[in-house]
Design a protein that fits this description.
Distance between the termini: 31 Å
Shape: globular
Helix content: over 70%
Structural class: mainly alpha
Order of helices and strands: HHHHHHHHHHHHHHHHHH
Radius of gyration: 22 Å
Oligomer: single chain
Strand content: under 5%
Number of helices: 18
Largest sheet: none
Length: 509
């Protein structure tokens, strides 16, 4: 195959599988960072003298920058080229991680986390859109997105294990420094291996009003949910944030419908399949984020597990996700319609969540937590894989970056909502249980038991809501997503074919 054939629009890149290694490594780094810092937070707070009131900003600064700038990052990737955006994002993320690891006070830490979020918002959509434009054959695409989906789903739990090891045996600063080798290897590999197809950039002028409105609207939304978790839903600032977000995002939609070169072309989100995927993925992430949080607290506080042991306790979920994504999803994706993987996948995850509503203070890990985690992992892995692939399939190459950014945005906003909403439900149920039962507890040990039982009562109350949310996600996937199974050799976003392949029409969903 000639060099021009490799670079022509729609041509197959011979280095695509090597490129996948570096794209997956970068994705793992970003997903790890979402949970690895949570394990290190207590140690970092003590060392840097961060107050209890301000410690949430270690997480919030990252979430605000990442969630607020994702659409902008996706558009920059389309404008600059995904390879360049990917490498710049990795370099910036590594520099911000070095700054966080070397932090000497809270301002330096918060700044480093915001920078990590900003460069992550450039990196994440560039990584997913590179997969979208490099893997065009349906069977290869299924395998590539199976690997990517497993990392996207299971990386958070890996972060808990790695964070526990680094914090317990080295120092919390290594939860930042560990990103640097990841980023250097991924950036070097990407620079030499990735060959982005020509003609896939969107060189339209940047939609500045769209950038401003979307960034402010998403920041207000994420901050509203984050603040609701700590200050309550009726707090005046919380309410103001939600109102401001609604106004800004409504103005954003109005602007996008009118400008010639919109930041987010409405055709990307109004297409039935993509709209259904963004909505169902966001809902599933709400359930998942809440669960990670509750199980981490349950295992460490109620069961007395160490950080490392807690991380290892999540391994069955990771194994389930990898199996669901690479074995079930990948093998069936070219044989059945995506909704027949997504819908049942979310329902299997809901069944795993349903088992967790039986949680007690003395529940057996082997009898209850292990099977529930396996079911959750299998279900989520099976559903995530076709969702990730279909979200960017059939989209015009010039829109690949922003379509990928919407996948990340739905996950990021879903995570913020899940943490705040389910935490609020749990806290309310816990307070109610303790108020009802504390009067009968006369000794100190009985009072401690009531507090632990109250915590578990709160977790199970919130998990019931998570079950319902996953059932709704399954219903949306089965109702909205009506695409048929992918054809054998379809070239997404191009009507051209490659060498000996049989010419086929563009897949349009």
């Amino acid at each position: 195959m000639s060099e021009t054939a490799v670079k022509a629009p729609g041509a197959v890149d011979p280095g695509r599988w090597r490129a996948l290694v570096f794209i997956a490594l970068a994705q793992l780094m970003v997903v790890l960072d979402a949970t690895i810092v949570n394990i290190a937070l207590p140690s970092a707070q003590q060392d840097l003298g961060i107050s209890d009131g301000n410690r949430q900003w270690v997480v919030t600064a990252y979430a605000l920058a990442f969630g607020g700038l994702l659409l902008f990052g996706g558009r920059i990737a389309d404008l600059w080229g995904r390879k360049r955006a990917f490498v710049v994002g990795l370099a910036g993320f590594a520099a911000a991680s070095a700054l966080g690891g070397a932090a000497t006070n809270e301002a330096m830490m918060f700044g480093a986390r915001a920078l990590q979020g900003a460069f992550g918002a450039l990196l994440a959509p560039a990584a997913l859109s590179l997969l979208a434009v490099m893997f065009t054959d349906a069977k290869e695409r299924a395998k590539a997105f199976g690997i990517y989906g497993a990392i996207a789903g299971g990386g958070g739990a890996v972060g808990l294990i790695l964070g526990g090891f680094l914090t317990e045996y080295l120092d919390w600063r290594w939860t930042f420094f560990v990103n640097i080798p990841f980023a250097v290897v991924a950036a070097a590999g990407a620079w030499f291996v990735i060959r982005e197809p020509e003609g896939s950039r969107n060189r339209s002028p940047l939609d500045v009003p769209g950038v401003v409105l979307s960034t402010l609207g998403l920041v207000a939304l994420v901050y509203g949910f984050t603040r609701a978790e700590s200050e309550g839903w009726s707090d005046s600032v919380t309410v103001t944030m939600f109102v401001a977000s609604a106004v800004l995002l409504a103005a954003f939609v109005a602007v996008e419908a009118r400008v010639k070169a919109p930041l987010l072309p409405l055709r990307v989100v109004t297409e039935r399949n993509r709209g259904g995927i963004y909505l169902s993925l966001g809902l599933a992430i709400i359930a998942m984020f809440g669960l990670f949080l509750f199980l981490t607290y349950y295992l460490q506080i109620v069961k007395g597990y160490s950080p490392v042991r807690t991380g290892f306790a999540f391994l069955p979920m990771i194994a389930g996700m990898i199996t669901g994504s690479t074995q079930i999803g990948t093998r069936l994706m070219t044989r059945v319609a995506p909704r027949l993987l997504m819908g049942p996948g979310f329902l299997v995850a809901a069944l795993g969540m349903l088992l967790l509503t039986q949680l007690e203070t003395d529940s057996s890990y082997a009898a209850l937590l292990l099977p529930s985690m396996l079911l959750l992992g299998l279900g989520m892995g099976t559903a995530f894989m076709p969702a990730m692939s279909l979200a960017t399939q059939g989209v015009e190459p010039r829109d690949a970056g922003v379509a990928s950014a919407m996948v990340n945005t739905s996950q990021q906003v879903g995570g913020a909502i899940g943490t705040a909403l389910l935490n609020t439900i749990a806290a309310s149920a816990t307070a109610s249980y303790i108020a009802d039962h504390m009067a009968g507890a006369t000794s100190r040990s009985q009072q401690q038991l009531v507090q632990l039982e109250g915590m578990v009562e709160g977790y199970t109350s919130a998990i019931w809501f998570a079950v319902g949310i996953l059932v709704v996600a399954a219903a949306i996937a089965l109702t909205f997503v009506n695409a048929g199974r992918p054809g054998g050799t379809t070239v997404t976003g191009s009507a051209e074919t490659v060498e000996d392949e049989v010419p086929v029409p563009v897949v349009a969903h």
